[in-house]
Amino acid sequence: MGLLDALFRSNEILGIAEETLEFAIESSEAAHPREYMGFLRGTEADRLGLEQDGLVITDVLVVPGTETNSVSATVKTNQIPNDVKALGSVHSHPNGVIQPSNADLDTFGRGSVHIIIGAPYRRTDWQAFDSQGKPTNLNVLDVDLPETEEFFDFTQADIDEDLRG
Ligand SMILES: [Zn+2]
């Protein structure tokens, strides 16, 4: 197996974390009737306790100016190494038509998986598409996302406690 094969194997997208999908659907509903838009980023599967090579979509990087009702997307992206590129995109169709528009097809070439979420934003109101705009299967994985709070939730009292040992 050559180096390129190894790179492609390790960049295989195994699926999307259920929590991440639910977050994107909730955010789409919150943005309604405006469109919600974000980029998908991944975490190496072995960091999530999966014994497989590949990436799991775990983060939505919200495009600035897009309405969202949660801070978790922005917080969680702090954990992603800068060298992990966006795997694709997610956006909503407030008109409920879960098909790529011509404008969507023009942008799908960047990234390998693109999710469209449609009104009325039920758990099943979404579809993944490949870079050609063809419907593609995307597994929803029940994985525990790495907790971010423990890295950020320091208070001065904690630090003082640490210093005292
Ligand atoms: Zn669209």
TrEMBL record:
<dbReference type="InterPro" id="IPR028090">
    <property type="entry name" value="JAB_dom_prok"/>
</dbReference>
<keyword id="KW-0862">Zinc</keyword>
<keyword id="KW-0647">Proteasome</keyword>
<dbReference type="Pfam" id="PF14464">
    <property type="entry name" value="Prok-JAB"/>
</dbReference>
<dbReference type="InterPro" id="IPR037518">
    <property type="entry name" value="MPN"/>
</dbReference>
<dbReference type="GO" id="GO:0000502">
    <property type="term" value="C:proteasome complex"/>
</dbReference>
<dbReference type="GO" id="GO:0046872">
    <property type="term" value="F:metal ion binding"/>
</dbReference>
<feature type="domain" description="MPN">
    <location>
        <begin position="14"/>
        <end position="135"/>
    </location>
</feature>
<keyword id="KW-0482">Metalloprotease</keyword>
<keyword id="KW-0378">Hydrolase</keyword>
<dbReference type="GO" id="GO:0006508">
    <property type="term" value="P:proteolysis"/>
</dbReference>
<dbReference type="GO" id="GO:0008237">
    <property type="term" value="F:metallopeptidase activity"/>
</dbReference>
<keyword id="KW-0479">Metal-binding</keyword>
<keyword id="KW-0645">Protease</keyword>
<protein>
    <submittedName>
        <fullName>Proteasome Rpn11 subunit JAMM motif. Metallo peptidase. MEROPS family M67B</fullName>
    </submittedName>
</protein>
